[in-house]
Amino acid sequence: MDGRFFHLDDHLTRVQQSCAKMRLRFPIPREEIKRLLVEMVARSGIRDAFVQIMVTRGLEGVRESVLTKREIEDLKNNLYMFITPYIWVMEPEMQLTGGDAVIARTVRRTPPGAFDPTVKNLQSWCHFSLPNHGDANITEGSGFNIVCFKDEVLHTADPGVLEGITRKSVIEIAHTNGHEVRLETVPVDLAYHSDEMFMCTTAGGVMPITYLDKKPVKDSKIGPITKKIWDRYWAMHYDDAYSFEIDYDNAEQKTPSEISVKEDSHGQENRSVMEVSKL
Predict the structure, then answer these.
(1) Which distant-in-sequence residues (6+ apart) come within 8 Å of 12 by Cβ?
(2) Cα–Cα distance between 37 and 8 in angstroms, integer?
């Protein structure tokens, strides 16, 4: 945001950990990925940018879906990197008053036994939907973690959810402010009786929830704890301990086609897409 890369190393570490769980690997060195991402953002000219990287297995056909362990290890995984204008899960205007979320009662999240939730995967439900595993406990939304504040304690689901980078920042801020944080199962009933509630994600930051199932959370106002966490979270984007500045002035401007194909040491193409349109 505003020309600074926030928590890049943390995101790359999580991607690497997810790749290991899925028997994938970066096709080029991590530091080269970091260098390319910085270069792509600089060349795009987008100061408020959303950066996404994906690693795919490298299958060339459907019939390759059943492979031996050795064949899987021999596959050349592909890397895709995208730079686009920043994506807001909750628009800034709505964050001033808070959003309206719903508890998903009949649609369950994919259970951990079917897919490891610590590997990032987006499961779509209705907007600001808070799903469960069918056990009356809240898990996470589509790309965001959920935090409830009750009796001076922040509650957020664990295990069975993505270990969010933004949630990590929220926990750090809460501890700094002297608040207890509990990573545990979060009953739906706790959500209904929360003093404050918010969602958190890289694509939107700290996003207050003031209505749940059309009923107000406490007094339907954004609470003081949420406000403090919101303020500190965005201030961290300008803190050199968590972010670094992109040098746009010395970036060579090129079209996407000029930088879209890179080759790794095996001669395999790793395609990256750069969006150069500005907000």
Answers:
(1) 30, 33, 34
(2) 10
